[in-house]
Amino acid sequence: MPPPAEAGEDDAPDTGDEAELRTCAVTPGLHGERLDRALAALVPEFSRSYLRQLLDAGLVRLGGAAAGKAAARVRAGDAVQVELRPTPQSQAFVPQPMPLSVVHEDEHLLVIDKPAGLVVHPAPGNWSGTLLNGLLARDARAAALPRAGIVHRLDKDTSGLMLVARSRAAMDALVRQIAAREVRREYLALAHGAWRGATPREVDAPIGRDPRNRLRMAVVDLNQHAGKPAQTFIELLQNAEQFCLVRCRLGTGRTHQIRVHMAHLGHPLVGDALYGGAPAAGMARQALHAERLALAHPVTGKPLAFRAPLPADLAAALAAQGLGYNPPESHDAP
Questions:
Q1: What does residue 111 show for φ and ψ, rounded to 5 degrees?
Q2: Using omega within 30 degrees of 0 as the cis cutoff, is the peptide bond preceding 86 cis?
Q3: What digits encode the pLDDT tens for the residues 167-219?
Q4: Where would I find the H helices in the chain?
Q5: 220-251 in b/e burial notation, b at 16+ Cβ within 10 A?
Q6: pTM, full prediction
Q7: Catalytic positions, written as ranges
Q8: Cβ(258)–Cβ(201) below 8 Å
C-alpha cells in the first residue's frame, strides 16, 4: 500500500507489481473541478503530491481512458480509476545487510567509520543501500528508534566518524549534546590554493540556501536572505604550492558547512565541484574526512574520544602533493 497523506513530496510511484485499483465516481459537488483536485477529494487518505505523481505516471483513468492533464475538468458521474502503487519511500526503511566499520559499540552507543560513497539516510535517488538500511539489518533494536538511531549526518562523499544511538535514552541525550555544541567534531580537508593569512582562523558566517542556485548552500546576509548562524574553526596543518591541508572544527552543524566556508575563503575543497573545486591528485570526491569525535558518553558520562585513519584516496592525494599527516597524540577529554 502507498503511504498515507503525511508522506512527503518525494513519494513517487514505482513500477512494481503490487497495486490496488480504486474506482470511484465524480460527485455532483466536484462537477467542473480540476482532475487533480477532484482526486484529492475522492481519495483523501493520500497526499496530493502522491496522487499527482500517479497522474504523471499514467496510473489514473477517467471515463475508461487514460487521464490527461491534471488541469482537465471532470463531470459529475465520471468514473475515475486510480492504480495505487507502493512508492520508493514506503519501501525504503527495510533491513539491508552491509559491511560497516565499527569503531566503538556498547549497549547505548555505536560509532562507525563511514566510507565515502555511502548515503546516510534514504532520499530521492537513494531509496536503498543507505547506512540506515544497514543499521536496521545489523541491530533489531534500531527499528524502534527514529532514523534507526542516526543523530547527525555526513554527506555521501564525505568519509569518517558518525555517532549512532542504540537506545532512546542515548538518542535523546546525543541530540541535546549536539544542539548544545558539547560534541567535538573535527575534520581534515584538502583544499585548493596555498593558505595565506592567519591560522587558526574562526569563520563566523551565516549559511542559507544559495539564492542563485537552490541546489547549493551559501554564505548569506541574514538581513536579505533566510539562513542560520554558522561557525567553523580552521587550522592550517600543511601548505603546498597549490593546495593546503587544514583541520576544521565545527562550532555549528549546518548543511555543507565546511565546504561552504572553505569556498567562501577562496579555498574550495579538492574534488568538490558543487562549490568550485576540481578533481586533483586522484581525488574525484570532495576531500573531506571526519577524523575525530570527542564527547561525554550519553548515558554514563564517561569521556570518549575516537579517531578514524585517513581513507586510502585522501592519503594518496596528500602523498602526491608531498603533504604528510601525523595525527596528534590522542586525548580522552571532549
A1: -120, 125
A2: no
A3: 999 999 999 999 999 999 999 999 999 999 899 999 999 999 999 998 899 99
A4: 35-42, 48-56, 131-138, 168-179, 257-264, 312-320
A5: beeeeeebeebbbebebbbbbeebbbbbbbbb
A6: 0.76
A7: 155
A8: no
